[in-house]
Write a structure and sequence with these properties.
By secondary structure, the protein is mainly alpha-helical. The chain is 78% helix and 0% strand.
Length: 157
């Protein structure tokens, strides 16, 4: 049976893929319309920016959930298993602290940016900034789930 993290990750991967496809097609249309027919969509750069920000943060969340992000584990691999386990918990704790700060400060920035519209839309830029606290909160959930799973496996030994 797949865990909720794996199911959510699969859904997020598909969603990010769809967003990327939309961004790609949108920019392709922008280029074709501008160079072949001289038509420029004024709203398109703002939508591209919004999509790109969400793609980056959701993609980072997917990578984080698979431990596919960049990590330097040279020293961890040289430690004894018990020490490595303790270091993993310390690193996870520091990560949760960092992500909690991202959530709190991200909410603050998002609230401020909700009063500032995009250049060509009457849509607040806060919707782009909302990606930071949203994805950081998901990463906190993933970190806690991983830590609980690790503790459960340890107790079974």
């Amino acid at each position: 049976m797949r865990s909720w993290i794996e199911r959510a990750r699969g859904g997020l991967e598909r969603f990010v893929g769809i967003l990327f496809l939309i961004l790609f097609v949108l920019n392709l249309l922008r280029i074709v319309l501008r160079y072949l027919w001289g038509i420029a969509w004024l709203w398109e750069p703002d939508l591209s920016r919004l999509l790109f920000i969400w793609i980056v943060f959701l993609g980072a969340t997917v990578l984080y959930s698979t431990k596919g992000h960049l990590g330097v584990d040279y020293f961890l691999n040289r430690m004894k298993p018990r020490t490595r386990e303790k270091m993993d918990f310390l690193i996870d704790g520091m990560t949760v602290l960092f992500l909690a700060i991202l959530v709190l400060k991200g909410i603050e920035v998002t609230k401020v940016r909700m009063r500032i519209p995009f250049d060509t839309w009457d849509l607040p830029t806060g919707y782009a900034y909302m990606a930071v606290p949203f994805c950081a909160a998901i990463m906190i959930g993933v970190t806690w789930a991983r830590a609980i799973s690790s503790l459960t496996k340890r107790r079974k030994k």
